[in-house]
Amino acid sequence: MNTFGKLFRVTTFGESHGKLIGVVVDGCPAGMEIDEKLIQEDLNRRRPGQNDISTPRKEKDILQIMSGVVNGVSTGAPICMIIENKDKDSSKYDGVKVTPRPSHADFPALMKYGNWVDLRGSGRFSGRNTAAFVMAGGLAKQLLKKENVKIGAYTKAIYDVNDDQDHTLEEILAFAEKNKVRTINAQIADKMIDAISKAKENEDSVGGIITCIAEGLPAGIGEPMFESIESRISSAMFSIPAVKGIEFGIGFKAITMYGSEHNDPYVIEDNKVKTETNNAGGIIGGISTGMPVKFSVIVKPTASIGKEQDTVDLSEMKDTKMKIEGRHDPCIVPRAIPVVEAMTSIVLLDLMLQAGKIPRVL
Amino acid sequence: MNTFGKLFRVTTFGESHGKLIGVVVDGCPAGMEIDEKLIQEDLNRRRPGQNDISTPRKEKDILQIMSGVVNGVSTGAPICMIIENKDKDSSKYDGVKVTPRPSHADFPALMKYGNWVDLRGSGRFSGRNTAAFVMAGGLAKQLLKKENVKIGAYTKAIYDVNDDQDHTLEEILAFAEKNKVRTINAQIADKMIDAISKAKENEDSVGGIITCIAEGLPAGIGEPMFESIESRISSAMFSIPAVKGIEFGIGFKAITMYGSEHNDPYVIEDNKVKTETNNAGGIIGGISTGMPVKFSVIVKPTASIGKEQDTVDLSEMKDTKMKIEGRHDPCIVPRAIPVVEAMTSIVLLDLMLQAGKIPRVL
Amino acid sequence: MNTFGKLFRVTTFGESHGKLIGVVVDGCPAGMEIDEKLIQEDLNRRRPGQNDISTPRKEKDILQIMSGVVNGVSTGAPICMIIENKDKDSSKYDGVKVTPRPSHADFPALMKYGNWVDLRGSGRFSGRNTAAFVMAGGLAKQLLKKENVKIGAYTKAIYDVNDDQDHTLEEILAFAEKNKVRTINAQIADKMIDAISKAKENEDSVGGIITCIAEGLPAGIGEPMFESIESRISSAMFSIPAVKGIEFGIGFKAITMYGSEHNDPYVIEDNKVKTETNNAGGIIGGISTGMPVKFSVIVKPTASIGKEQDTVDLSEMKDTKMKIEGRHDPCIVPRAIPVVEAMTSIVLLDLMLQAGKIPRVL
Amino acid sequence: MNTFGKLFRVTTFGESHGKLIGVVVDGCPAGMEIDEKLIQEDLNRRRPGQNDISTPRKEKDILQIMSGVVNGVSTGAPICMIIENKDKDSSKYDGVKVTPRPSHADFPALMKYGNWVDLRGSGRFSGRNTAAFVMAGGLAKQLLKKENVKIGAYTKAIYDVNDDQDHTLEEILAFAEKNKVRTINAQIADKMIDAISKAKENEDSVGGIITCIAEGLPAGIGEPMFESIESRISSAMFSIPAVKGIEFGIGFKAITMYGSEHNDPYVIEDNKVKTETNNAGGIIGGISTGMPVKFSVIVKPTASIGKEQDTVDLSEMKDTKMKIEGRHDPCIVPRAIPVVEAMTSIVLLDLMLQAGKIPRVL
Predict the structure, then answer these.
(1) From CA B119, how far away is CA B90, in angstroms rounded?
(2) For residues B100 and B122, what is the distance between their CA atoms, to the nearest angstrom?
């Protein structure tokens, strides 16, 4: 339920307006020097209040490692990491159990957990819980880097602003942090910011597309059938609130291609087997080909909007209207970038361990 | 690896050109009257050689139940089901370990399993293994039906022929079996058949989109985080060879909608909570809303084509050309329909059991 | 690795001389009123320094609930519970990586984790980690009680003092807390205390036997084969440091009985099916019979003793001698009682949930 | 439920009087030359009807490999193995759902699965299902042998005949197959056979103790806490019907030893770390020390006896008497020896894989 992974296992806990957000990572190899600063950087990329196009909630999200690390090195014991919740304002959530917010988890969560469910700040369903993914993924990312597997994500589209060009991981790492929306091209960034600002002005919200690339994954990683790389990555991505779709490689465009166009021909380059194109996104038969792993996820427009909306009054079982007053992001895409990278890191590291490619003691 | 599910657990085995394709279902409630005919019908919808737009391989795919069922009723013990492989012709697969077929699992599988991997008829990577899903899913489907959860899938697109209309489950169940491509509209069916035939003539292949709908799932099913309905369904879908993308609800179109357009407003209808639209595809926060669960998957064009292709000779590490001679489908979409239904059934039944909604003894 | 259970899942973290000992419980039904005082009582029964026959380490072990509970009621979200480590003295553990303590985990842990392993206060291998079991088990115990399943354990033997009489759960609950060693009979308690005191005087240690009884478990609980009640309970018991054996029902005495003596004949009592004897310990075929579940575990003498011992110097690979100076218990049996109860509770609750006998929302 | 293991995963199916007994092994490394003869030998050691002190049921138990192996070499795909049931006589089992056999699973199984449960020949609860363990364990045993890990078990006690001497694995492998009861010492064997024969004459049954030794396991194998070697082995042992207890190393005798006697002092021998004694049975802190892993299991007297027994009539809820007429073993211990070896092999191989000590491709 709240545990993910097989050998590198991640268990999350905490709520948006509870004491903390936490994660236990079990199975991290012993002897790994942990750079807390790098994890903190990813937490900073994710945290609220970083600029004028994100939620005004102010949280420092300072990483605290509670176990499993001595003198900055992993001991092989489970690593517990937390951030505290400081800037909580639950006053706006009293009513959501009676008048559920459209396209929020309020109603299905009530159906599942009864009235006991904690919906303050959306509780367990808040995007805030993805900070746990970022902490765990931060470990995985560092370890993968030592194995020359590098991962980066960027904003490919926001509303009707779409960057149609293909980009490399190198470009992502060079440019995506240079603008507020974490896209590659500065001009496109401006248009995206405009789109978000316009939505914000209208008390509305927009979504977008995030593209993620992992380079350096050796060929032969991944398990067939139910533990294909695609199964594991998609499973991880849909644990991120607001993600509603995923495509690998050329994705939906595959539909209008012939097999002869879509197939990736093998070629020898520098005495290595590569493919001329990479329509498969680096994965065939659920297993890595050695080419970059590439996929995109759809992020829906933020459900929280300031506009008045139709909903129901569950106490009287009648239609009504509501206005959401909590703090929220007009577009969650830029803050979801480090989350996508984190979950991808967790999946790929776990599969590397499963393939016996990384020792249990470094 | 080859096991899926938590309480309703499916373990598959077998190879395309081995003795059989098999599955063990563990956790099927005791006391279920099993209609073998219904499972056989789904096997027939999936089996090769059913018509002129599918592979010429001739297999009857007769269901054999080997354990767990006495007098047609489940006993609570694991249910093993198999079909035999009869029409095997492995003569065409000798070379694939040296000159791997583009966009087939040959190369990554060699990287993973070494030269020991069985690639006759694509071995474990063949779509033939999805017959195991259909057998296990057949059980799940029947059990869900007793709980009034009904599932159906249809072909939404083949190559450039796209059925843009929305359809209900009722329409799917009424019309999708009336044409060879399993689509709703007869005129569109003809165009799709033309597209496939044209690809076939050119020794080429095409892909498409399958849309699946599940109705009757009560609100409150699904686990948050890593076992969201979307995580589980996507994980299941990507275990089907050739699936390269998935979108829930309105999917990729969400990108160009404002939150105020995308949000599904709640309404009271017949004293029940419904949503006016269903852009979420029946799932919010990973949990069912009570509205129909709806998603679409992308199926890439069949990798096996008759046309000459570029590839490499691994024994000499040089570029070469190849022609694939084995039997294959010019478009796998119509045969994948019952597979999508089966995997969806497995996921939803498992989540129903996990939610305690179905007793362990019927 | 550090996670246990299927639907009621327990993940532990922390080290003896780290910041804290913690546990995350995932799958606790929503709507459970949690009595923190009862959990604290069990922590108190387990905590060090409670009397003169336990280790002098002073820890208050105050329960802190960090997530998953609002206003004293479980929300369905994962419940994180911790106690802090206050009275740490790691000065005595510097040498154990060079001269490993006999029958402590020092040497095998070094072989497994390399020099990175945290052995301060025995780190992850310390009995202190069982506080996490007590916290998680405290939840399970309370929930089982609501279902009329009650669990109690007592000290059956310490060194050569053995209580040969059979006892009921009622007796355990009435008498076991009335003496320092948690045994039933006051005279036997005195002899046990003498045995421990004598060992303590000699800078030595003793072990013993703990017997545990669970009443009220309905017939038909437990899964066959690999998830038999015995498999699950034994697996749980051997996660408690120092446990080296387990027997169910009449246990080792079964060897010298004929089948006709050992078999438990069924009888009707008050229109219910019971067995005249309960040599099976309430479990046949891995499934509960409705009779009390009964088993005993062997606890070895504490490995930490003050006496000089032979060991090796790993830096020079030569024989040497050592004296252990850390704080320790001359007999761990009395403090292990609440731990045995806790792990039993976790197993039985999980199996009750798996059998669908407890709703997911209370 | 019917699946065991983490990376080397074993799923069993079949019933005593069904078509077959089968197992799927998932995760066997690719490239392993499989000696079917060795697996068949272990099946022969387990099979019924091997001599006058075992059940008269006649089964050849011929191993059939159905998948995952090509030309005698594992491909990395799941390996399905079966034996057929030939000599079935279900006529004697009609009544057991009304008058359950004492100390058989009949009653608890009815409570769990309702009247649907298959109790012909005890169905899923029959010792016959352990043939599946022997097939899967046969693979594991062979693979471990390549890694110089060797496993053997012998009969330590039958009824009141107890071999008090310690034995080495060498002795087990040399002598245990030289007599019908699989014990080391020929004189003791005769006494054991007498004890069994006497029980048989009296239409009664006896139990015993099996001791198992594994040599060659490197130090540092095993996971702490819930996946300790003891947790995994005990969990495996209690999946064998009739096992009611287990002790590691010196076991129950530990109770009457002081810590100073029980602790195993380290010594350097041939520049390797060993322990002078091995009271711990090769496992400390759940992890291997490099010394032989040693444990003993209690096997209860066979529940099936010819003598008249008290039981109940469930249809009328009144006391009654019964005589069991099916075929059965007066003592199951000798036939359980290969089963204990098999389950031990499965556990140790899985832990070796988990520790990354065996490559995924040989």
Answers:
(1) 9
(2) 11
Angle formed by the axes of helices B229-237 and A229-237, nearest 10°:
160
Q: Which residues contact A130 (CB under 8 A, 6 or more apart)?
A: A46, A240, A241, A336, A339, A342
Higher per-residue pLDDT: B35 or D224: B35
Residues 275-304 of D with CB under 8 A from C: 275-276, 279-281, 283-290, 298, 300-304
Helix (H, G, I), strand (E, B) or coil at C140: helix
Cα(D196)–Cα(A57) distance, integer angstroms = 77
What are C119's two structure tokens? 């052995």
State the Cα–Cα distance between residues D57 and D53, nearest whole angstrom: 12
Instruction: Tell me what the mean pLDDT of segment B70-87 comes to.
Output: 96
Which helix or strand (DSSP H or E) is residue A354 part of?
helix A333-354
Q: What is the pTM of this model?
A: 0.97
What is the DSSP secondary-structure string of C51-112? STTS---------EE-SSEETTEE-SS-EEEEEE--S--GGGGGGGGTSPPTTSTHHHHHHH
D302 pLDDT band, cuts 50/70/90, is very high
D356 close contact with A: CB closer than 8 A: yes
User: In this predicted model, what pLDDT tens digit does every residue of D280-301 receive, in sequence order?
Assistant: 999 999 999 999 999 999 999 9
ipTM over 0.85: yes
The CA distance from B147 to the nearest CA of chain A, in Å, is: 18
Alpha carbon D144 to its chain's center:
17
Instruction: Give rounded-to-5 percent helix, strand, coil for chain C.
Output: 35, 25, 40
Tracing tokens 């039958």 back to the chain, one arrives at: D158
Q: All domains of chain B, ordered by start, with CATH?
A: 3-354 (3.60.150.10)
What was the pLDDT predicted at C214? 98
Is residue C326 predicted with pLDDT exceeding 80?
no
> What is the number of residues in chain A?
362
Give, as one character, the DSSP assignment of residue D65. Answer: E
A280 residue type, one letter:
A
d(CA D286, CA C109): 9
Question: Mind listing the pLDDT tens digit for each residue in D138-179?
Answer: 999 999 999 999 999 999 999 999 999 999 999 999 999 999
Is the separation of the CB atoms in B7 and B29 below 8 Å?
A: no
Sign of CA dihedral D183, D187, D193, D198: negative
- Mean pLDDT for all residues in chain B: 96
Contacts of D27 in chain B (CB under 8 A): 1
Q: Convert the pLDDT of each residue in A161-178 to its tens digit.
A: 999 999 999 999 999 999
- Interface probe with A: pick from B12, B293, B300, B318, most Cβ of A within 10 Å: B300
Distance CA C268, CA D319 (A): 6
Q: Report the DSSP beta bridge partners of residue D70.
A: D73
